[in-house]
Amino acid sequence: MVRSANKKGSGLGKGLGALMGNAENVEEVVGTKHKKDKTILSIDLIEPNPDQPRKNFAEDSLVTLMESIKNYGIVQPIVVRKLGDVYQIVAGERRFRAATRLGMTEVPVIIKDYSTEEVTEIALVENLQRQDLDPIEEAFAYQRLMDTFKQTQEVIAVRLGRSRSHVANMVRLLKLPEAIRNDLSVGELSIGQARPLLSLKSEALQLEAVEKIKDGDLNARQVENLVKTLSTSTQKNSRQKKVESAEIKALTEQLKLQLGSPVAIKLRAGKKVQGKIEISFSSELELERLIAYMNDTHEDTVPDHDVAIEFRV
C-alpha cells in the first residue's frame, strides 16, 4: 500500500544533502496520490539493503528510538528506491527496524531514483555521520569510500567534518589481526588501547600485548609503555641473534679450514648452548683422515658444551 502525506521531515545531515538533493518524492505510483514531501508506504513493501555497511545495531539505541517513535512518530522519512516490486532502503534502516518491532504497518518514505553505486555511497555517508558505529565499522566505511569511489582521505575528512588524521588513524586499525579487530567491535578494547599495538612488528607480539592489556586492565598510557617494553625486548633479542649468527658463521669457517671438509653447526633453541656439528666427507679414506685428525688433535680435550658430532657421507 502506498499513500501520500505532507508532514515535512528534516534533512539527513551535513554531507548527505549534496548526495540526495531535495527531500521530495520523484516517482509516481499508479493508483495513489502524492503530495510534495513524502509518501506513506506499506512496511511489507520495504526491504533492507543487503550491502548496508552497518552490521551491528545496538539494542539500547533501538529501544530509545522505538520510544521516540511511539511518542512522536517517524519524523524523518525513510529514503528508499524502487527495485522491482519492492522498495529498498537507501537511508533509515534503524527507523525501519524500530517500526517493524513496534508492529507498524506503514511508514513515511521518500522515493528516490538512485543507482546501486549512489545507494552504496549514501549508506556509507549516512552511517559515518552517526556517532554509534563501532570503530571497525567506521574504518571499513572509510576504506570502502576510498576503494569504491576513489576518494582521498582529505576529501572524506572535509565532507564528513572530521580531521584527515582521524580518518587515517581509523583506517590503520584495519591492519590489526582479526581477533583484535573483533575485540574493538564488541568493546573489549578501546581505540586508545588498540592503536599503540600497530607499532609492534608481529601479530604474535600484538596478541601477547592484548592478553596483558586485558589481564592488567591497562589504560592507553600504560599500553604505550607496554608496547615500548615489548619493542625494546624484541630489538635486543634480534640483535643478540644477529651476534650469535655471526659468531657461528666465523666458527664454521674456522672448523672448515682446520678439518679441510664442509662443516655445518646447528644450534637448538633454548638458553643452554646445545646443538650438533655436521662434518661431510665423500669417501672412506676421507673419513679415516678426519678421525685420525681428531684423535691426534683433541685426545685430551673435554668439550665445554653439550655438542654432538655427526659425520655425513
Mind telling me the C-alpha Rg? 34 Å
H-E order: EHEEHEEHEHHHHHHHHEEHE
Strand content: 15-25%
Head-to-tail CA distance between termini:
88 Å
Could you state the CATH homologous superfamily of the domain at 2-113?
Answer: Conserved hypothetical protein from pyrococcus furiosus pfu- 392566-001, ParB domain
The appropriate CATH architecture of the domain at 2-113 is Alpha-Beta Complex
What is the 3D form?
elongated
Average pLDDT score: 78
Helix content: 40-55%
Spans of at least 5 consecutive residues whose pLDDT stays below 50 are: 6-16, 18-35, 302-307
Provide the CATH top-level class of the domain at 2-113: Alpha Beta
Q: Structural class, from secondary structure content?
A: alpha/beta
- Order of strands across the main sheet: 1-2-6-4-5-3
Family: Belongs to the ParB family.
Organism: Veillonella absiana
Pfam families: HTH_ParB, ParB_C, ParB_N
Keywords: Chromosome partition, DNA-binding
